Amino acid sequence: DVKVTQSSRYLVKRTGEKVFLECVQDMDHENMFWYRQDPGLGLRLIYFSYDVKMKEKGDIPEGYSVSREKKERFSLILESASTNQTSMYLCASSLFHGTLGNGYTFGSGTRLTVV
Amino acid sequence: GESVGLHLPTLSVQEGDNSIINCAYSNSASDYFIWYKQESGKGPQFIIDIRSNMDKRQGQRVTVLLNKTVKHLSLQIAATQPGDSAVYFCAGEGGAGSYQLTFGKGTKLSVIP
After folding, report:
1. Are A63 and A4 contacting, i.e. CB atoms less than 8 angstroms apart?
2. How far off is chain B from A111, nearest CA to CA, in Å?
3. Which of B47, B99, B68, B13 is nearest to A50 (CA)?
4. What is the structure's pLDDT at B2?
5. Overall number of domains in chain B
6. Any idea what the CATH number is for the domain that residue A18 is in?
7. What is the DSSP letter of B42?
8. HSE (CB half, 13 Å, CA atoms) of B3?
9. What distance in Å separates the CA atoms of residue A48 and residue B16, rounded to the nearest whole number?
10. Looking at the domain assignment, is residue A114 inside a domain?
C-alpha cells in the first residue's frame, strides 16, 4: 500500500523557533506538495515540487521555505514560527499530472501549535 | 484563478439513503477534478476523479457527475453508511501545465443511524 508519512502528528513550538516538518513518500512520485488546513479556509497550497531540487510557490508561501534534496523527501521549514502559523499541515504526492486514478495521496497531517 | 466551493457546509442523511454533495468551480480551463474524504484526525483520502471530457464516472457506491456548462460537479453516495461520515472536499486542477489543486472548503456529512 502506498504511503505518505509525516514525521510528527503533533508539535508544539515557541514563537521564533525554526521548525522542520518532514514528509516522506514511498511511491517514487515526482510531485510533492505542502498544504495547510484551517477551519473555514479549507486547504491552501504553500509550496510544491515537481522534481528533486525544484520548488514552486503556492498560494501562501510567506513565512515558509521548502527543501527537496531527495525524490522521496519534501521538507517544510518555518524560519521563525509565529502564532498565525498554528495549523494542520498536510503533505501530498502525485505520480502524474491529472492522470485518472492517480489523485494526490495525502499524509495523516501534522498539527502544529505555536505558543 | 480557480475557485472551488461547496454549496452546503453540513449535510445530514439517514443511514441507507443516498447522499449528494455539490461543488461549483470557476475556472473553465480546469480539466481534472477529484473528490476526497477526510475522517476526523486523518488526512484526505482519494475517492474518485473525473476528467473534463467525461460527464459521469462511477466507483464503488460513489458516482461523480460533471456539468461543464454550469461548472458544477457532484458526488453521489449510494446507501450511505455510518462509515461515510466525514468531511468531503472537491478539488480542481487548473488546466494544462498546472500542478496545483484548488480545494473547496468541505462539506461535513453526518449519517443518522
Report:
1. no
2. 9
3. B99
4. 45
5. 1
6. 2.60.40.10
7. S
8. 2
9. 40
10. no
User: Could you tell me if residue A56 is inside a domain?
Assistant: yes
Could you tell me if residue A115 is inside a domain? no
Asked whether the beta carbons of residue A108 and residue B43 sit closer than 8 angstroms, the reply is yes
Q: pLDDT digit string (tens) for B15-68?
A: 999 999 999 888 777 888 999 999 988 899 999 999 889 999 999 999 999 999
pLDDT at site A100: 65
Amino acid at B57: R
| Domain region containing A94 | 4-98+105-109
B60-85 pLDDT tens trace: 999 999 999 999 999 999 999 999 99
Query: In 3-state terms, what secondary structure has residue B106?
Result: coil
Would you call B105 and A41 a contact, using CB atoms and an 8 Å cutoff?
A: yes
Domain CATH code at residue B65: 2.60.40.10
3-state helix/strand/coil string of A30-78 = CEEEEEEEECCCEEEEEEEECCCCCCEECCCCCCEEEEEEECCEEEEEE
- As given in the structure block, the three cell numbers for residue B91 are 478539488
Q: What is the pLDDT of residues A16-43, one digit of tens each?
A: 999 999 999 998 888 999 999 998 788 8
By CA distance, what is B4's nearest residue in A?
Answer: A42
C-alpha–C-alpha distance, residues B94 and B28, integer Å = 9
By CA distance, what is B94's nearest residue in A? A98
The parent domain of residue B42 ranges over 4-112
Let me know if residue A25 belongs to a domain: yes
